[in-house]
Amino acid sequence: MRTIASMSEYTIPTEAPKTGWDMHCHTVFSDGTETPTELVRLSREKGLHGVAICDHDTTAGWQEAEQAARTIGQPLIRGTEITAHDHGVSVHMLAYLYDPHAQHIRELFEATRQGRLERTKRMVALMSKDLPISWDDVMAQVRQGKRTTIGRPHIADALVAAGVYQNRSEAFAGAVSSSSPYYLPTPSPTASQVVEAIKAAGGVTVIAHAADPGRNTHVLSDEAIKALADQGLDGLEVWHRGNPEAARQRLLGLARQFHLLVTGGSDWHGAGKPNELGEYVTDDETVAQIAERGSIAVI
After folding, report:
1. 195 and 104 inside one domain
2. DSSP label at 282?
3. Which Pfam families match (predicted)?
């Protein structure tokens, strides 16, 4: 666990920053609808101080994002949103500035992506008995072939294309929801294993939308967050549309108690979600802490 001294110069923000970095964005390399180049361009256009690419369980979009950042002149943090679980609670971990060549990371991503793929195929097989959808329909929604992390959003898009739903959000409230009879959980590592793996690769870990009641019957407990903090967790994503105000205050209290960084991000998916790029951001001081702790450079 980090020492209190290492956090002595860090001031935890008490309210959502008005300016800064959007530290939670997705592209066509997972379940977003826009390219990494477009992500970087739009972040510059919106006046963001910088942006983080965080596709699910992959680094496939990093190279394009880096090229765009250098060409456009927009600061970029390379990251990934990693699917995990903690005693029955689904947990998404934002991992920043880690060595993508670390063997354990490569193996972890490959296993999770393969698990996602097989799970998605099984869900489609179940749905096809009742709905106009096939595996070919899902693959038609995949923009980057085998480099894409395939999952439920691609099922949702196929159902929209078939006219079953008007948009992805409707699909996620219906047949694609976690309460649907077609739902199957994603095989994934534990949150503890993710923290350990990213730390070993020199990276920074933050729990995404850490208190969003729409994602689990129960959110992570104080005890679970403390256990991860003791193991080396770096921060909590507090400023996110899924976290209710009361939950944000709870997370801020935990951040103070366990000496954690506080981040914000839009969870932008392009046209895939209503979330607007930059609707929540991370302040420059927190980003500087992340940059200092990471093992690869901010672009």
Report:
1. yes
2. B
3. PHP
Helices (H), 174-298: 191-200, 222-231, 245-258, 284-293
* Three-state SS at 90: strand
Q: CA 115 → CA 52, 104, 118, 195, 262, distances in Å? A: 25, 16, 5, 20, 31
Read off the pTM: 0.87
Q: How many other C-beta atoms lie within 10 A of the C-beta of residue 294?
A: 23
CATH number of the domain that residue 215 is part of: 3.20.20.140
Q: Structurally, how many domains does the chain consist of? A: 2
Q: Is residue 180 within 8 Å of 218, Cβ to Cβ?
A: no
H helix runs in 164-203, sequence order: 168-173, 191-200
CB distance 201 to 104 below 8 Å = yes
Could you give the dihedral angle defined by the CA atoms of residues 49, 18, 277 and 54, in that order, rounded to the nearest 10 degrees? 60
Q: Which residues contact 237 (CB under 8 A, 6 or more apart)?
A: 23, 24, 94, 206, 207, 208, 209, 210, 243, 263, 264, 265
Which residues, 6 or more positions from 194, have their beta carbon under 8 angstroms from its beta carbon? Answer: 82, 84, 93, 95, 108, 205
Per-residue pLDDT, 145: 77
Residue 11 has phi, psi (to 5 degrees) of: -105, 120
What per-residue confidence (pLDDT) applies to 298? 98
Degrees to nearest 5, angle at CA 36 with 238 and 146: 105
What integer best gives the mean pLDDT of the chain? 92
Q: In this model, does residue 3 exceed pLDDT 60?
A: no
